[in-house]
Amino acid sequence: MVTNVAVACQGGGSHTAFTAGALRELLPPLHASDDHRLVGLSGTSGGALSALAAWYGLQREGPDHAGDLLRQAWLDLSADSAVDWWANEVTVASARLANGGAAVPEVSPYYTPVALWGQRRIREVLDELVSFDELAALAEDDGVPELFVGTVDVNGGEFETFQADAVTPDVMLASMAVPELFHAVRMNGHAHWDGLFSQNPPIHELMTVPPARKPDELWVLQINPQQREEVPTSMTDIADRRNELSGNLSLNQELRFVEQVNRWLEAGYLPEDRFAHTEIHRIGLGRSFGLSSKLDRSPRFVRQLLDLGERRASEFLDGHEDLDAEP
Questions:
Q1: What are the residue boundaries of the PNPLA domain, all occurrences included (predicted)?
Q2: Is the pTM of this model over 0.85?
Q3: What are the pLDDT digits (tens) for 170-197?
Q4: Residue 241 phi/psi, 5° resolution?
């Protein structure tokens, strides 16, 4: 019996390079396995970038190509020029001061050209990474995993997800549009922001698919630590933990519903021909880097996160029955 697997990629600024590293390690053995089948990928913000790169690379040339695209995407977004490096250092330092309680001037992204410059750069990276005109045709092939990208409708106040055949550069820009940093992206007459407010990452859509494609296992690539042993007391630590808790809020709500469906199935309240038990696995960073570092795009830090993702995924595979890091 084949085990259906869906992978959900949480967003969280630069920390989301972790999801790219984890996917680089997870995809080859999952693709080569006779006992496991990838049926879905979802993501929000940077998690959406990683999910898209993985999905597109798999459909085009397989897991090795997907791994190349995942690494390329995050290194292309890193601050690799002198001017960009300087801007990155100033941004991270300002965020660190603000999180510590210092009075730091705040400027709306609508009043600075930096915001539009940043979004133009993201669009350039996306255009080099993916041929968006091909997505609809690729999504029509039999056996292709689902892809869901999360955004939030600013005007309507509701989350909105987009499947592979509807993903465009604007959809990706919207999913990555952190309100404090970028302009909202207008689609279908409404402004859209980063989906971190609503689904981080989309889980519900991965579960509401035809029975044959429902995931038996859900692998969550989690950016924000679920637990902390110490109680934060400094303003910086308090800001860090508040951000982690708010970032996990929508994720935990959706996972609790999946767990509730599992309990209803076990109790016989739901028909087994329409619902399936879904085992949840979380693959997390395993450490806290601090809120300000979510803005850090230095190549050194991005590579550190990519490598960390690969290590955490390898540890997960080593403990997973029938899968290992070297198929």
A1: 8-206
A2: yes
A3: 999 999 998 888 999 999 899 999 877 6
A4: -70, -35
Contact 56, 169 (CB under 8 A): no
In 3D space, the residue among 254, 250, 249, 258 whose CA is nearest the CA of residue 217 turns out to be 258
Contact of 262 with 217, CB cutoff 8 Å: no
Q: What is the pLDDT of residue 324?
A: 57
Mapped onto helix, strand or coil, the DSSP state of residue 287 is: coil
- H/E stretch holding 206 reads helix 204-207
User: CA-to-CA distance for 306 and 314, rounded, in angstroms?
Assistant: 12
Cα 274 from chain centroid (whole Å)? 28
Rounded to whole angstroms, the Cα distance separating 89 from 19 reads 23
Q: Phi/psi class of residue 144: alpha, beta or left (left: φ > 0; alpha: ψ in -120 to 50)?
A: beta
Q: Which is nearest to 48 in space by CA: 114, 130, 124?
A: 130
Q: Measured between alpha carbons, how far is 23 from 309 in angstroms, rounded to an integer?
A: 8
Which tokens belong to 225?
């630590």
Residues 15-53 pLDDT 10s: 999 999 999 999 999 999 989 999 999 999 999 999 999
